[in-house]
Amino acid sequence: MAEEQPVSHHEVHENYCGTDGEKTVRKSHHSAEFKSSLTSRLNRIEGQVRGIKGLIEKDTYCDDVLNQIAAVQSALNGVGKLLLEGHMKSCVIERMQAGEPEVIDELLVTVKKLIR
Question: Helix %, strand %, coil % for the chain, to 5?
Answer without folding.
Answer: 70, 5, 20
